[in-house]
Amino acid sequence: MSTLLRLALLTLIVLLHISSSVAAARHDYGDALRKSILFFEGQRSGELPPTSASSGAATPHCATAPQPDVLGDALSDHGCWERPEDMDTLRTVYKIDQNHPGSDVAGETAAALAAASIVFRSRDPRYSALLLSRAISVFEFADRHRGAYSSSLRKAVCPFYCDFNGYQDELLWGAAWLHKASRRREYREYIVKNEVVLHAGDTINEFGWDNKHAGINVLISKEVRSVDGEADYLNSFKNNADSFICTLLPGVSNSQVQYSPGGLIFKTGGSNMQHVTSLSFLLLAYSNYLSHANKVVPCGGKSATSTQLRLLAKRQVDYILGDNPLRMSYMVGYGPRYPMRIHHRGSSLPAIPAHPAHIQCKEGTRFYLSPNPNPNVLVGAVVGGPNRSDAFPDSRPFFQESEPTTYINAPLVGLLAYFWAHGA
Ligand SMILES: *[C@@H]1O[C@H](CO)[C@@H](O)[C@H](O)[C@H]1NC(C)=O
Asked: Is 239 exposed, middle or buried (0-12, 13-18, 19+ CB in 10 A)?
């Protein structure tokens, strides 16, 4: 080998090494993960436990609300721009019961309790058992008294929090998590018996606070792959999940999801980032299932590998953290540039120490319309994000772009935890 060639090769190796280590060090997923969790602390209200991380200067405005466990009246809440400490709108409590069924709310609650029981299984077996037994009774209630909370409590929950998609998916979602948590045969039988009745295969194009179909099929597909052959009766869930995943991939024949020129998943209607984080979460979960089963997804004539799905999910997370045409992070407090005028009452109104006097319902409007940055930095909040052409107005009245929500952050926590633990 000539010296020149050897030198060139050496340079190439060094360059490759540098570029791969630069790429790996680009984003601090651990920092983003901590911040994404801090956001949830900032969203709490009522009397907070002493361990709260947000009792300091970061979000003092969120520390106290009139009473714990009291819900707001959606219409009057939306009509006011007030601090939680000043809220004087109706705080009516609503509940579901036999006469006011809410299989959606109860099914979702059962799913969350069952999932949490898995998390605590080895750490705190007693708590885990309690979570599971509550999940079982809440699910029983949801199934015995079938109905949507937007029928039984229509005036309270609509138009803002209507169950547009029906309660059927939450029943299957609850059963799927209960099966995973308890391994009880009755839940598997429930899923098989109700697959068609509860429309498991319908509208699999979304995963979020209302529509669980994609999540149901992805979750149950794992059973099919892990027990190999024994769970043939659940095969339709795997096929549904496969074709759902194909709809997310750019360049395959049945691709349905759009991408912005800068590479962000884009779906019409409401906050886009909720779709980005939840669909990316499912891509990553599916990538792991595939890799354990040593399988690929057949998409028309092509097939997608577990690596492709993981890289697509990572691309979305990196876009959120700043790899985008505007070079800004869509997580408040992460990186050198992030949204300054988020659509968030507590963040945009002055904190109590800075402005002790009461701010009434409509008095907050001047802060809402102000061109100034928010006085309180709500660290970890991820906003609705840029529009279809990667543009972002950073303005409170553009709520679809500038509002943070718990359901944007929830799937992002899982994604960040994975990339923090495993790297790229
Ligand atoms: C996105 O926002 C920019 C700036 O406000 C605007 O010029 C552009 O037309 C918008 N794109 C779409 C697809 O709405």
From this structure: middle
Provide CB contacts within 8 A for 357, sequence distance 6+: none
Nearest CA to ligand 1 atom 13: 388
Task: Give me the residues paired with residue 265 across strands.
Answer: 259
pLDDT of 78-88, one tens digit each?
A: 889 999 899 88
Residues 339-370 have pLDDT tens digits of: 999 999 999 999 999 999 999 999 999 999 99
* CA dist., res. 422 & res. 424, Å (int): 6
Q: How far is CA 244 from CA 177, 214, 300, 373, 384, in A?
A: 20, 7, 12, 40, 23
Helix 306-321, helix 273-293: angle, nearest 10: 150
Distance of CA 250 to the CA centre of its chain: 22
Burial annotation 113-134 (CB, 10 A radius, 16+ → b, else e): bbbbbeebeeeeeeebeebbeb
CA angle 154, 158, 159 (to 5 degrees): 150
Contact residues for 54 (Cβ-Cβ < 8 A; gap 6+): 38, 41, 42, 44, 48, 62, 63
Smallest CA-to-CA distance from 221 within 203, 200, 207 is with 200
388 CA → ligand 1 middle, Å: 7
For position 75, what pLDDT does the model report?
A: 78
Q: How confident is the model at residue 224 (pLDDT cuts 50, 70, 90)?
A: confident
Q: Where are the alpha helices (DSSP H) in 322-375?
A: 345-348, 365-369
Q: How many residues does the chain have?
A: 424
**Using CA atoms, how far apart are residues 295 and 389, in angstroms rounded to an integer?**
35
Among 267, 268, 387, which is best to mutate for testing ligand 1, by the most ligand atoms less than 8 A from CB? 387
Centre of ligand 1 to C-alpha 389, Å, is: 6
Closest CA to 389 of 272, 308, 279: 272
For residue 393, the ligand 1 atom closest to its alpha carbon is: 5
Q: How far is Cα 107 from Cα 172, in angstroms, rounded to an integer?
A: 8
Tokens for 75, please give them.
């219409």
